[in-house]
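Good morning,

Attaching, inline, the C-alpha cells for the sequence recovery test we're adding to the shared suite. The designed sequence is right after.
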C-alpha cells in the first residue's frame, strides 16, 4: 500500500490536527491543575481572585478548541463507509471520536474545579486538629539537660 493511499480521507484532517484534538483538553486540564495549586497563595496575599478565574477560562477555551477540532475531523470522515479491514478513514474517525469524548470529559473536570474555586476560595485556612503539629513552623531547639 502506498504511503499516500489514505490521503483523500485525511485532507483537512491531518495528523497534527488529530493529535491536537486528542491532547488539547487533557494538557489544558493538567496545566490548569498545576498552576491552580500555586496561584491561591498569591491570590490570597494580593486579594486578586481574577487570575484563578482567567486560568480556568483559558483552560476551557483550549479544551473547546480541541473539541471543535475533533468534531470537524469526525464530520469530515463521516461520509466514508466502514471497510472490513482497518483503513486510514476508520483510524481517523476513531481518533476523532476519542478526541471528542476526551475533550468533553476533561472540560467537565475543569469546570468542576472552577466551581470549587467559587465555593472554597483561595484564603481558606487549613483545618487542623488540636494535636496536629505545625509543619510550617521551625522545629524547637531542645538543649541537652545539664547534670546538677
Amino acid at each position: 500500500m502506498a504511503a499516500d493511499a489514505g490521503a483523500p480521507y485525511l485532507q483537512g484532517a491531518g495528523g497534527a490536527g488529530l493529535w491536537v484534538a486528542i491532547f488539547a483538553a487533557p494538557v489544558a486540564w493538567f496545566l490548569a491543575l498545576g498552576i491552580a495549586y500555586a496561584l491561591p497563595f498569591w491570590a490570597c496575599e494580593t486579594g486578586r481572585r481574577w487570575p484563578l478565574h482567567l486560568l480556568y477560562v483559558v483552560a476551557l477555551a483550549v479544551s473547546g478548541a480541541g473539541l471543535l477540532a475533533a468534531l470537524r475531523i469526525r464530520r469530515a470522515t463521516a461520509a466514508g463507509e466502514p471497510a472490513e479491514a482497518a483503513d486510514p478513514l476508520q483510524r481517523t474517525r476513531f481518533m476523532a471520536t476519542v478526541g471528542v469524548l476526551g475533550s468533553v470529559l476533561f472540560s467537565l473536570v475543569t469546570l468542576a474545579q472552577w466551581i470549587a474555586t467559587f465555593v472554597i476560595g483561595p484564603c481558606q485556612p487549613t483545618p487542623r486538629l488540636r494535636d496536629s503539629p505545625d509543619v510550617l513552623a521551625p522545629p524547637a531547639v531542645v538543649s541537652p539537660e545539664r547534670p546538677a
